Amino acid sequence: MPSRSPSPVGEGRGEGRTFFDKVWDDHVIAKLGDDAALLQIDRLVLHELSGSQAVTALAKAGRKPMSREQVFTVIEHLISTKPGRGPTDSPSPSGPIMIEATRKASREWGFHFIDYDDPRQGIAHVVAPEQGIAFPGATLVCCDSHTSTVGGVGALAWGIGASEAEHVLATQTLAQSKPKALRVTFDGRLREGVYAKDMILALIGRIGAQGGIGYATEFAGAAVASLPIEGRLTICNMAIEFQSKYGFVPPDDSTIEYLANRAFSPKGAAWDEAVRYWRTLATDEGAAFDQEVTIDCDALAPQVTWGTSPQHVTSIDGIVPRPSDSGEEKALGYMRLEPGTPLLGLAIDVAYIGSCTNARLSDLRAAAAVLKGRKVKAGVQAVCVPGSTPVKHAAEAEGLDLVFKEAGFEWHESACGFCGSIGDNRFSDLRVVSTTNRNFEGRQGPKTRTHLASPATVAASAIAGCIADARKR
Amino acid sequence: MESFQRVTGIAAPLMRINVDTDQIIPTLFLGGTDAKGYGKHLFHHWRYREDGSPNPDFLLNQAPYDGSEVLLADRNFGCGSSRERAPKALREFGFRAVIAPSFGGIFFNNCYRNGIVPVELPIEDVQDIAREVEASAGKGKVTVDLEAQAVTSPSGRRYVFTAPGTLRDMLLQGVDEIELTLGKRAEIEAFRGRDRARRPWAY
Which one in A148, A178, A415, B175 has a CA-CA gap of 20 to 30 Å to A164? Predict the structure, then answer.
């Protein structure tokens, strides 16, 4: 596939318009030259790791937020995951300063503020759909590359830098180049024990970690249509892992059902009006895409990564391949793996269930179904960090926390923590099987070797003490 | 905002694929609310040994590359996390341009706001420039000219690139993007009025 960074796209690709075209066009305030547009931003979501930089820079420049009702802050990157945590408890030495700066600015400026002890708290991309902050056709930005997660409810959402966030604070707009359009069609039906995580890993394995550079990606097809919203969020979460800044599933009945009665969703007549508009957003029949990819899900098996890029992936019964380039060679060296080694049976030190990718209620249920009545292998550290406080509470109401704890899992408060080795929330020189989204060198700690997989695979591996297939019990 | 027109300087051939922003600046060093203080942690895990001393095998610890202003890299440079400290760390080290076949999209935008120009050239061209640099033991300088949208290799070979117009103008003039946008306040307000009537739930 062509690999260009943001680039202009010609008008009139086909009859009809895509979901992306419609949402983009509805947000264009002004065209900027021939390659970019000034877009209205409906929702800015801030967190304390980079949001603190944006609010500090804004104040330093003597400016004020333009539209505080459209700004939401969540404390989630640097706050501790320890049960009983306090307001500035952080695994990172600089955490307290950044948490306080973000908290102070959010209160002073009157943003919607979700603090560490708020019952709505959690990882921003889990919270945004859960509370109805994200909605179909919304432009939503956040200083985090996994912001595209909320494309799972039909939002047009993407990650930005702190300077761009400062610009949004000051103007509630952002200049962006219009990307090209990619449609990924997941055909067929997932077999039992195969999940959204396996779909997205298989896609990245197929098109590569650079396959989506310069594209906005629409996920479509029967396997996506039948996915619950939480699975769609998992798929959209990893769009950036193939370098598509935007990933989304246009709204349908499931989306509308999911968003009904959420805290920030419109109510009454306003809801009916919103739904009428949302139903116009689906991609028109016959609309053309610059690029199409199809993945057959009928034959799809659980996936697991073996290297240091999400594209280094194989079916769970696969083997570590012979390296085909210098990147793969370097990856095998880092992962301390030999070509030909089966992934199944590879001994692990840590099993991690958490992150904006795979720590929603359905993920914890899938893991608990595997763990019930069984024990984590001696010597394996098993950690569960629910994606949000509401997820944690819902899991506890179902007794899932007991299943995890009795199996030998640690049960934490919600935050980003171990996914990106925030401060002391890191593993050191260990092999981890993880429900997260990045297996980069050092991502979960120095010399730590991460294998990405679904919650069911991680749970089965925790029990076995090695990478294991949850379908074979 | 810092402007950029052209630079002629030492070029470091760090020809690796998928260099993510966690490698450019590890999460451990993202602390603080300031806009500065990240250059010393650029490529930390590659640049320093476990005891904190410089790793002599790493390119940027070797003369003349320790004074580089241009970075040559392979595909997908700056993929991963959105952290703006990545271009900040590169800029503080002294870099003004990165030449690679492709870039992570968020990093690409962040560069323009931190005085760095990300230049896309085909891999064969980047490799040719890297070979020339290596043949001169790093002494041959590379020029990146944003105004002319051209790169010149140590031997004088010229490579043309295209930069997105809006971002290019912004960087050439070093304009304050927020001031520029606030200049359109009337248009923004008019849009918001119309849009609020149509999509009240978005406000």
Answer: A415
